[in-house]
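Write out a record, focusing on structure:
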Amino acid sequence: MADRPSERLRALGLALPPPPKPAGSYRPVARDGRFAWVAGQIVTEAGAVVSPGHVDGEVSVATAQALARRASLQALSALDAELGSIDRIARFLRVAVFVASSPGFHRPHEVANGATDLLVELFGDAGRPARAAVGVAELPLNAPVEVEYWLATE
């Protein structure tokens, strides 16, 4: 097995997307000392949200899990750009996954696994954070999933 997260990423056949560009008055990553916070990430292609709508309505749970994984890769891309390498990540402290939920949908934790399973694959136990999986009425641009990170760096 590859030793560093960047090597594990390649071994899994994954690549980081281009770093996200802010769509407002915020930065993709804010740092203070060893700590970093990644702004909420939603998945877009060609300027449009991928699979817009509510989970368990217009968007299946499986699609939402895949989007959470892609949003996680996007957040890692923001960190890679800020830190110079994802290998400088020491530990994920907390991940918040917001899920635009149809009425009666009570499984946002299953969607959140798409984000955090990837972190465990890449970082081992250092990728197993405290986590919040929150069902919400709406997300920006009608996105079904948004992912945020709090972490410690080397």
About this structure: The longest helix spans residues 61-83. The first strand starts at residue 29 and ends at 32. Strands lie at 29-32, 35-41, 44-45, 48-49, 89-100, 130-136, 145-153.
